[in-house]
Amino acid sequence: MRIFLTGASGKLGSALQAALTARRHEVIATDVDRIDVTDFAATRDAIAEAQPELVIHPAAWTDVDGCARDPQRAVLVNGFGAQHVALAAAAVGAAVAYISTNEVFDGRASRPYLEYDRPNPPNAYGYSKWVGEQATITLNPRHYIVRTAWLFAHGGANFLHSVLNAAREGRQLRVVANEVANPTYTNDLAEAIAALVETERYGIYHLVNEGACSRYELARYALERAGLGDTPVQKISSHQWSRPSTPPPYSALANMAGALVGIRLRPWQEAVDTFLAREQPTEQSR
Ligand SMILES: NC(=O)c1ccc[n+]([C@@H]2O[C@H](COP(=O)([O-])OP(=O)(O)OC[C@H]3O[C@@H](n4cnc5c(N)ncnc54)[C@H](OP(=O)(O)O)[C@@H]3O)[C@@H](O)[C@H]2O)c1
User: pTM for the full model?
Assistant: First the structure.
């Protein structure tokens, strides 16, 4: 398939590029340097020129605290950007896959959120991504909405890197224990999305590694498995971690729709083990 990919140098975008290419799709990889999705004409022209059969749109403003400080910009990039992509894809007869977030849910549930549960975004980032979902659903009937959570990836900075680096440098670790979601490995997610877009079973999907935990449990697990289990970690509550955004306290997702088409991700613990094994050479050279 000929696939136009936005955000190709981001954490998920780069894993997607690799997974799609490995499945012998033709990938037109773009990033903000080539098209800024807030620019409708540039987005429309780039997609018209590429004539893809599918557009996958992971590009986003993912700085949740930045979004809280500038909610209008969040909606511009994550909401209107998605509108531009969905319209441009529809104009050339292409399907569209929009990558969304667990933060469209308010986090007050007592069980993992299913695909058809009602969103109620608790913060500016979640709201902007919900706007992007609505635009995509409304403007392009051949859509996949893929919600995911707590990504960890090789390269760049993420929660696992921060925890492991802090432990190695002997810095004090304070980790929130009352925020729960699904840690998800970008390589597993990219494989799952690559499989999903070949099904033409359009709709809303929750693609996350199986199981959920708190940030504290995730930190403890990664430290144990990286041989840093003696590191003291102070358990704190989200109220003790002051930040501009308000994360949902419980935003675990359940993958019902993906399972129905045979797409399941392995448990998050196994994914963290694989991630750590692949990071090992880098870690040993430090
Ligand atoms: N990270 C998570 O834990 C998480 C959780 C749930 C859902 N998600 C969703 O998953 C998707 C991928 O997340 P990620 O963590 O891989 O993101 P990321 O690493 O921040 O990558 C996002 C990419 O989008 C690009 N971008 C930003 N503004 C743009 C614009 N106006 N036009 C075109 N490109 C633009 C960024 O370029 P620059 O870097 O140059 O700005 C970056 O390459 C996002 O849609 C996000 O909302 C992420």
Answer: 0.96
